[in-house]
């Protein structure tokens, strides 16, 4: 199929361009399970979705060794629908949410990995922790206040702009916070960079990138 041929080419190109230490989260939101399966068959195991309803629908249709990452804003009352199977929640943007993830993880007798989403963009963004809040939550985590959660890193999104200097500045801020917090306890994952800015994010220290449209093509609905 024409579409699959593109998918394969896109995926191989990106994989071969990524440094070995950089993890790829293939962002499959809005795309059908068959397309995800195509990329899975090429070897990809980590996929990102931004909506609970969508991830809950796709999960049973796809192989069980997929590591699902939630990358979009998560409402507290929806954590229970994904707590049993989600690998990583990248979008922790409040203490209330972190508490609920901890509670739901306990119910399923597991630990859920999370990233703290930090507001780094200059533009007004709805979601994300202020830098001081992220630091506070990490200290609380180190004090064992969230025993069923593993805070493994940070996630951030740069301003949507053509201005590379602006983007670089924002990514650099997040890398600095990552290094600072890593002095308390080493964090593993610095998730920044999407289709249009991932090479820059990697230059700035990202070791995990979230790439959607450059693999799957443009989304009709965003
Ligand atoms: C959609 C999305 C991405 C991927 O965006 P692309 O531009 O398609 O690569 C990455 N991160 C988040 C949080 C997203 O919602």
CATH fold assignment? TIM Barrel
Strand content: 15-25%
Largest sheet: 8 strands, parallel
Helical proportion, percent range: 40-55%
Quickly give the CATH architecture. Answer: Alpha-Beta Barrel
Give the helices and strands as they follow along the chain. HEHEHEHEHEHEHEHEH
Unreliable parts? none
Rg estimate, integer Å: 17 Å
Shape: globular
How would you write the strand order of the largest sheet? 7-6-5-4-3-2-1-8
The CATH homology group name: Alanine racemase
Summed over residues and divided by their number, the pLDDT gives a mean of 95
Number of helices in the DSSP assignment = 9
CATH uppermost class: Alpha Beta
> End-to-end distance, in Å?
24 Å
Structural class: alpha/beta
Structure summary, number of beta strands: 8
Keywords: Pyridoxal phosphate
Protein name: Pyridoxal phosphate homeostasis protein
Domain Alanine racemase N-terminal: 5-218
GO molecular function: pyridoxal phosphate binding
């Amino acid at each position: 199929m024409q579409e699959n041929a593109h998918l394969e080419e896109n995926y191989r190109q990106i994989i071969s361009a990524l440094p070995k230490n950089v993890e790829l989260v293939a962002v499959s939101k809005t795309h059908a399970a068959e397309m995800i399966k195509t990329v899975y068959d090429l070897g990809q195991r980590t996929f990102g979705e931004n909506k609970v309803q969508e991830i809950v629908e796709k999960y049973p249709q796809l192989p069980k060794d997929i590591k699902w990452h939630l990358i979009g804003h998560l409402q507290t009352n929806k954590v229970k629908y994904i707590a049993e199977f989600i690998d990583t929640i990248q979008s922790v943007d409040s203490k209330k949410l972190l508490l609920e993830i901890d509670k739901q993880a306990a119910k399923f007798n597991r630990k859920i990995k999370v990233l703290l989403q930090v507001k780094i963009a200059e533009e007004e963004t709805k979601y994300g922790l202020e830098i001081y809040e992220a630091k506070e939550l990490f200290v609380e985590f180190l004090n064992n206040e969230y025993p069923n959660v593993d805070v493994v890193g940070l996630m951030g999104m740069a301003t949507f702009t053509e201005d590379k200097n602006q983007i670089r500045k924002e990514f650099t801020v997040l890398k600095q916070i990552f290094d600072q917090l890593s002095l308390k306890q080493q964090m593993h994952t610095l998730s920044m960079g999407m289709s249009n800015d991932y090479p820059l994010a990697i230059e700035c220290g990202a070791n995990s990138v979230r790439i959607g449209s450059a693999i799957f093509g443009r989304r009709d609905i965003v």
